[in-house]
Specification:
The complex is a heterodimer of chains A (about 525) and B (about 150). Chain A is an alpha+beta fold and about 525 residues long. Chain A has 12 helices and 24 strands. In chain A, the strands form 5 sheets. Chain A has a 6-stranded antiparallel beta sheet with strand order 8-7-6-11-10-9. Chain A has a 6-stranded antiparallel beta sheet with strand order 13-14-15-16-20-19. Chain A has a 5-stranded antiparallel beta sheet with strand order 2-1-5-4-3, sandwiched between helices. The relative contact order of chain B is 0.14. Chain B has a 4-stranded mixed beta sheet with strand order 1-2-3-4. In chain B, helix 1 links the parallel strand 2 and strand 3. Chain B has one domain: Transcription Regulator spoIIAA (2-Layer Sandwich).
């Protein structure tokens, strides 16, 4: 406690106040003994303000004394003196400031998490990380991803700027700590770097004088996500321990987001590669027989489906071409792998395509395994032109039998049946021989078509009956039109609902009067 | 191959003498196929020397390709353990699926003489009984000039 009179002269100082203000002794001028903020507060307090109590100036003030801060509560007395009660609020203030900083940081972390996790795009994650770090943690920031070949992808950003992407051909080993941080394992602490040791590529343009550099690893989900480099100007304060810890918290979030994006990108690229390989071929007229195919993959999250079809053109004049349409049990990567295996095996077995049963038996043996009973169902169709007609051999292996659409609208089911392949030790098959007259078509389809659920009530199955009726409307249509008609009807049927893969292949004997439009492979004597 | 959300799959057991009866209900699809197989494995472990495994299919609402694969695996396991598999009260859809895929005969064929097989020292670990359902394929051309 310190008492001073209206003339700003110290009247009384207690022991505690004496320790804070060593120069304040009774009789000394206030101005020389206490800091300016208290002198001016005292002056405001002692201005005589009549008819107003308490005086407007008699309010608590705050200020620093040395490296601590105090609150001073005035108590004016009637004799014009003012007693100042001093309270040390240093710790209180520090706690408040720390709380404020923590709140800011939490807010920043939440915001960065939201920004980072809303994207599964790796480039975007790197941009966001660099920009947020430059704006909130340092004067400039670099995000360095693990090397792709010889190039190091780097995104740099200075405060207030926009991120710039580059690929630099440098050895991460020349920056101390960077190679370890990029490896991701074992975890290394963030590392201080001597600014003079930093290579030029590490310092983004726009940074005046380099003050301090910290390299923090970006920890990923078991895969190295990269490193975060924070740079500060020479004039700015160096990184405190707290800031470094905070940078690591940020790095953990950024690293998680970046590795998730990287894993996603890898998966997407695998799926794309598989998809490219598995996509059905575009069909056309081969050796005087018309082919058309349509495939609508399931929109479920596993993008690679289990349906497939192939047309293997005849090797010579008059020899049959082989059409395969099938459906692999299950979905996703395993189904995709099995589909690839089946297509390759059948391709290799083409020389024995005149014996469907043998071909399917060999395929069955090659697919059998003890771990699971993953199977496939399929239809083989060998088609050869014979005069104006097309001779077909059709063999179903556990698959819905092909439908034959005659040019007058009749729909018949090919009398073929057999066991599925890949699960049973032995298979049985029964091959049907069918002749297509000009204008007749043969429709191979997967159960994604016949079992499509939808319709007016939503849950009804499209069904074979409806498919037959739909086909009978397609009499004498060209193969492609039949495919499109079936696809259109089933798409309408399922509407926006979920559906399985839907594949359909049509083999047609061209109508003789259309033959003038066929390709050059057709022999002239057909164009009667 | 359902496109509607699958109904919950359920299993209920009852055992009598050398027969275990399992009632199936709901959808036997890719989400639930593993449940069936795990349950059958457990049954075969608990009831060593089981003679008959009867799956009551009356309550099955849908069976997709994964469900069929699970049934085929069940047949392999029961065959390996020398037990007969019975698919009771099959729904029309299940019958149709087994008919089209040509698996009905295989699934319900008796497990070939377990005692004889045991005496012959054949391990139960074979992928499936190869000595049954040997319906040799008909010559590939069952001549049908016009269907």
């Amino acid at each position: 406690m310190l008492v001073a009179d209206a003339d700003a002269v110290v009247v009384h100082v207690n022991e505690a106040a004496g320790l804070v203000f060593p120069d304040a002794r009774p009789g000394a001028a206030l101005a020389g003994a206490v800091p300016g903020w208290l002198v001016s507060a005292h002056a405001r307090c002692t201005v005589p303000v009549p008819a107003q109590r308490p005086p407007a100036g008699a309010r608590t003030v705050q200020g620093r004394v040395g490296d601590r801060s105090y609150e001073a509560h005035p108590t004016p007395h009637d004799d014009g003196t003012v007693a100042w009660w001093l309270v040390d609020d240093t710790d209180h203030r520090l706690a408040r400031e720390a709380l404020w900083t923590e709140r800011k940081r939490t807010e920043f972390l939440v915001r960065s998490s939201n920004l980072l996790l809303s994207s599964l795009n790796l480039d975007r994650c790197m941009d966001v990380t660099a920009q947020m770090a430059a704006d909130h943690l340092a004067d400039a920031a670099l995000v360095i991803a693990p090397a792709q070949g010889l190039l190091l992808p780097v995104v740099s950003c200075v405060r207030g700027g926009s991120p710039s992407v580059s690929r630099v051909a440098v050895d991460p080993g020349e920056v101390p700590g960077l190679a370890e941080a990029l490896q991701g394992f074992p975890p290394v602490p963030s590392r201080w770097l001597d600014p003079s040791a930093a290579p030029a590529w590490l310092v983004p343009e726009g940074l005046v004088a380099l003050g301090s550099i910290v390299i923090t690893p970006l920890p990923g989900h078991g895969v190295p996500a990269g490193a975060l480099v924070l740079l500060r100007n020479g004039g700015a304060e160096a990184f405190t321990e707290g800031e470094e810890v905070f940078a690591r918290l940020f790095a953990a979030r950024a690293g998680a987001a970046m590795s998730a994006a990287r894993l996603y990108a890898e998966q997407a690229s695998i799926t794309d590669t598989l998809m490219r390989e598995l996509l059905p071929p575009s069909l056309h007229q081969v050796c005087g027989v018309e082919y058309a195919g349509g495939y609508r993959p399931s929109k479920d999250h596993e993008r690679v489906g289990g349906d497939f079809y192939d047309v293997h053109p005849a090797t010579g004049e008059g020899a049959p071409s082989l059409v395969v349409l099938g459906d692999v049990c299950g979905k996703g990567l395993e189904a995709a792998v099995m589909t690839g295996k089946i297509r390759n095996t059948l391709h290799a077995l083409l020389p024995m395509a005149d014996d469907h049963h043998r071909m399917l038996s060999l395929l069955n043996t090659s697919l059998l395994n003890t771990e699971n009973a993953r199977f496939a169902t399929m239809v083989l169709a060998s088609a050869a032109r014979d005069g104006n007609a097309v001779r077909l051999r059709l063999t179903s292996a556990g698959h819905p039998a092909p439908l034959i659409l005659r040019s007058d609208g009749r729909v018949e089911e090919a009398r073929t049946k057999g066991t599925l392949v890949g699960a049973l030790p032995e298979i049985t098959t029964q091959t049907a021989r069918v002749t297509l007259a000009p204008g007749d078509t043969c429709v191979l389809y997967t159960d994604g078509i016949s079992e499509a659920r939808g319709g007016p009530m939503g849950g009804a199955m499209f069904g074979e009956e409806r498919l037959r009726r739909a086909l009978s409307q397609c009499a004498a249509m060209p193969a492609e039109a039949v495919v499109e008609h079936v696809q259109m009807l089933t798409s309408q049927w399922v509407g926006a609902g979920r559906h399985d893969d839907m594949a359909v292949v049509v083999i047609a004997a061209p109508r003789t009067n259309h033959l003038s439009a066929v390709d050059g492979h057709t022999r002239g004597r057909f164009t009667a | 191959m359902t496109s509607t959300p699958s109904a919950p799959f359920g299993l209920t057991y009852s055992a009598a003498q050398d027969t275990v009866r399992v009632e199936l209900s709901g959808d036997l699809d890719h989400l639930h196929a593993d449940l069936l197989l795990a349950a059958v494995d457990e049954v075969l472990t608990v009831h060593a020397g089981l003679g008959h495994l009867r799956l009551d299919c009356a309550g099955l609402s849908a069976v997709d390709s994964s469900g069929l694969a699970a049934l085929l695996m069940v047949r392999r396991r029961t065959g390996g353990a020398g037990a007969d598999l019975h698919l009771d009260a099959r729904t029309v859809q299940l019958d149709r699926l087994l008919e089209v895929t040509g698996t009905l005969e295989y699934l319900t064929a008796p497990a070939a003489r377990p005692q004889a097989r045991r005496r012959a020292g054949r391990g139960p670990a074979r992928g499936g009984p190869a000595d049954e359902n040997q319906s040799a394929a008909p010559p590939s051309g069952v001549a049908e000039p016009h269907v």
